[in-house]
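User: Second chain of the day. Same drill as before.
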Amino acid sequence: MRHREVGELMTRDVVTVPGHATFKDIIRTLDEHKVSAVAVTDATGHPLGLISEGDLLPKPADQGDWFRSLPRPEPWESEKAAGTKAEELMSAPAVCARPDWTVAEAARLMESQRVRRLLVVDDSDVLVGIVTRGDLLRIFLRDDDAIRHEITDDVLDRTLHLDPAAVSVDVVDGKVTLHGKVHFRSLIPAVERLCRTVDGVVGVTERLAWETDDTGARH
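Assistant: Same format as last time:
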C-alpha cells in the first residue's frame, strides 16, 4: 500500500527570516506574506528555529500596568519578552521532518513535541518545506472512490491475496463497510486492521462471514 508522504502535503515556499531579523522585521514579514509563522535560517538554508505568532505575544503582553497583576511568567517567557532579534525570539531547536515521512510519522512527532507545524529538511538538513496539522488532515479529503479502489486492489488483492469479488467494500465519507466471506476467520482482524491504515479512512465496520474457524473460538 502507498501512504501519502510529507513531501506531497507540505508547503514548499517557506517564508524565512535570518537570525538577526528584528522584531518589527518579523512582524512585517508575517503581515506581508499572510502567514502565522516563519522559519529562522542561517546563510546556507539550515533551519535554526521557528517563530510563530505565539512566540511574539510575550512582547506586547509585557507592555502595560495590567501585566504586573498576572501570574509571574516562566523564565523563557521573560526572555522572549526581552528579545529583539529572531535568534532570541524563536523556538529552538527546530522540530524537523523529512519529505519521505508518512502522515502518521509526522503526526506522531507533532504530538510528542506538542507543536502545530514541522519544518521539512532534505538529507543535507537544508530547509525544503513546512507542514502543518491542517496539511496532514487533508488526507481525509480523499475521494471515497479512491479509498474503495485502494482497499479493493491493494489491501484485498495484492496484500492479502483475497478474491475481491468475495468481499464488497462500501465507502461513505471515509467510513468503510466490508461485506462478504473470507476463507478463514483469523483473516478478519487483518483485513480490518489494514483497511484502517489506508489514507483517508475514518473508520471501518466489518460484517464478514468465514468458511473455516481456525481460531479455536467457542460459539
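The mean pLDDT is 90.

User: Great, on to the next one.
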